[in-house]
Request: fold
Amino acid sequence: HCAEQRRPHGLDKAVLLSPAGQHHAMPVVTRFLASVMRLVLSVTPVPDGSPFPSRSSALHLLGAKLLQDAKATPATMELMSNVMASLLGGESHALPFRHVHFPDYPIGTTSTKVIRHGLFCVKHAAFLACNHGAKGNQLRYGRPVPPAYLPRFACMDVPVHFVSGGKDSLIPPPNVRKMFEAFRAARPDLASYRNFPTAGHLDFTLGQNDELISHVVHQLRAAPAAVRRAWEARAIRERRIVLPSSSGGSRAEEAAAASASASASAS
Reply:
């Protein structure tokens, strides 16, 4: 969108973890729940932008405590692990749900606008921009229907790395692969992809898979050299990191010494 509008976007690289948008391959249960959610949102007066399931922090804490209590006995732990594995994918015995202490990890909310957009893409089996109604779409996009993103991947000018989970039931790998292949066809020099065969959807948010985490960190660090230098310079100024230098000291120490020397010369 920014490229078509000739506006700067501020991105240097994108790492997409099991990205939504393309939903041509969906399990029957997931598709049924999407239909139920679409029906609920259509008959309830919930405005766009409202947090789902609730804005109340007290209700979030109550839900977190109930989830934590449900983990207290092996029977309820196994039941909830199997249910969540069926809905979101992953291996039930290694589900991140087992390791999270929910009162210390607040349950987040999702904007109803985001949910409606996801359901809109599911309904039309295409990765579309947000729907604002015929008049809103005409105002924002110059057309009565939202544009599709896949045909516009050629406008993207930054590297994009796609990651999928082989056991993700919410966003199965074929959906991610289709997005990757569309982007690779448009920008083969900027597209890359990795699938983790045993990962479910929660492994990308609450997971403790060292291989997956290391892979994502590596991809984020593999930014263009100019971006890395700018980040390192800022980190050194703020004394947030210590990087080795060729002289055996550290860049932070060298920066501090240079600053002290400059102050002494000035005085």
Strands lie at 14-17, 51-52, 110-111, 160-165, 191-196. The first strand starts at residue 14 and ends at 17.
